## 1
Amino acid sequence: MKDHIVVLSGSGISAESGLSTFRDSGGLWEKYSVYDVATPEAFQRDPGLVLRFYNERRRQLKEVEPNSAHLTLAELEKDYLVTIVTQNVDDLHERAGSGNVVHLHGELTRARSSKRDDLIYDIGYEPISPGDTCELGSQLRPHIVWFGEEVPMMEAAAAIVGSADHLLVVGTSLQVYPAAGLVDFVDVDVPVTVIDPGGPASVSRARVIRKRATDGIPEWVRELTSRAR
């Protein structure tokens, strides 16, 4: 049976493709408050602003491509069972060829009913406008888990991490809960690697590779495959 590699990915891996992040200097939160664009209350108060914000994110996503880190993770599926649990709402892992991707915080390329969470629609990179409705007549909203909302995929993600033979953390400082708590579900004898160019180690017992994702992931994969020979 193939080893199961579980990857926890965050905004750092997408930033290397040119996507703006929320927390870095010059990131999205310097232009918009979280309370203005990423809460249920913001959508109730000013749905037009929220829709424009995510329409812009979608437009930007259409213009960028997966980078070598995404592509290297996809290539791993030739020899390993790979599951990517991502905090990112972009589709770069899928476009790189990864077949098992769990999105904790939703997906930019999908919309859903503002009244029924199970009415979800693939919209690609098209905008959502005021007046665009689901089949029941309710306004469409981004299929995004906003601050203050439950993360519906957490239980499934915890089970995936618990089944890992290798855990790779890349592009995330694991400072945002509940996603940060996922590392607690990995077995104690499972090797954990964090790829992070700077800052404190996000997992106390992890090996840390102090490189960007596009440099660190190929290095980690080379070591992994050499040990497997």
## 2
Amino acid sequence: MDNNLTESVNDRQNILNNRYALQQAERHLELGGILFDGDLVFTKQQVMDIFEIGDATIERYLSSHDTELKNNGYRVLRGARLREFKNLAYGTLTNEGTRTSVLGVFSFRAVLNLGMLLTESEPAKLLRSRLLDIVLDVMVEKSGGHTKYINQRDEHFLSASFQEDNYRQLFTDALDNYVEGNKWKYGNFTNLIYKCIFQENAKEYRAILKLAEKDSIRDTMYAEVLTLIASFESGIAHEFEVASKAKGEKLTQKEARNIISNFEKHPLYKPYIVDARIKMASRDLCFRDALHEKLEAYIEAVPEADFEKFLGEKSRSLEEQLSDPETLAVFKRLKDK
């Protein structure tokens, strides 16, 4: 994983977008810095001292990873802002030159970002190791140690799960009423929907998440994926009914498969399918260390909002949600619809 941090912008950004990990890192790493604009700020000289590197090395990384470092808080101070900083940092800028008219400074995030990039620094290597330990500790603490069901900490999971269950019934009823075949058709057609949405069948998905036979696949799915599955099931059930009634008899399984194939290609669903693939692939790799190889092209850095969703104040275990009277009231309203 250490090598991944130096090579993968997504792996680096997944740490930098996790404010809970950053809070712990700031507390435990004790890198120093100067408090400026509510953030710890480091001069180039301070960063050189932290990582035991020279000016040329920093400049090389600032050039090769300019956008990434700027996005994570590296900036150049000029004019009034620089004068404010000089006054605040009085006595610490001897190596930068007190008369300089521009000064590059690193936020705490940018220092960590650089530390995850540097390959020629032993202190940077140690920092990466400590960061990974901190991230793991935070994940265990915030998730209660159950990342397999981290999806359920989303406040929208319960409603999405319940609604999907309702549309699942519509879909199985449509298979009964409008499609020929034996009991195996339920699993086969469910797998077709899964492959349309995230390119894996149930067996493949189960293996990637290391689920036991007794584990429910849908209990591990994110709310957005469940909602898209529900939308597919509802729409396909309707198409089965329309096609069967037009034909005057049940559809063959080949005819039903063609309907699902055409449904997947509908332009209405394309952005939703892409979004579901990005969320599943990116979140599972970040939170569950599970790689969906067929979705590898969709992996992105997990946004800060997702860390709030699954680790933040609003995130709660399913048991906690079910013990909340307000949540139960919403659940009852859905049931009564």
